[in-house]
Design brief:
globular, five-stranded antiparallel sheet, about 110 residues, single chain, about 20% helix
């Protein structure tokens, strides 16, 4: 085993903890690096080793381009999943069941 892992391993673990980890299926995260940097998505699966798969779309899933280490993710509880990183329109996840707006105040 590479002796440097005893130094690098704790650094990666520390970064995961600072980013809101450990992450689990269902968590909403922001991607911090790569071509999907800034995108908000939901964790849908754990993967080999300590990596996670996030909902980015069918093409990314098929090509295994939805796999990230915990150090590449940031817990994001305030954003909507699949929101565009530039504030533009995102992809809706489904019907929330809400049929009307807020109640009026008299």
């Amino acid at each position: 085993m590479f002796p440097g892992w005893f130094v690098i391993g704790p650094l990666f673990y520390g970064r995961e903890m600072k980013n809101g980890g450990p992450f689990k299926v269902g968590d909403t995260v922001q991607i911090l690096s790569g071509s999907h940097k800034g995108r908000i998505a939901r964790v849908y699966s754990t993967w080999q080793g300590n990596t996670l798969r996030v909902e980015l779309g069918a093409k990314e899933k098929e090509e295994f381009k939805d796999i990230f280490s915990p150090a590449q993710l940031l817990r994001d509880g305030s954003a909507e999943p699949d929101a565009a990183p530039n504030g533009g329109p995102g992809t809706r996840l489904g019907n929330s069941g809400v049929t009307g707006g807020p109640p009026s105040v008299s």
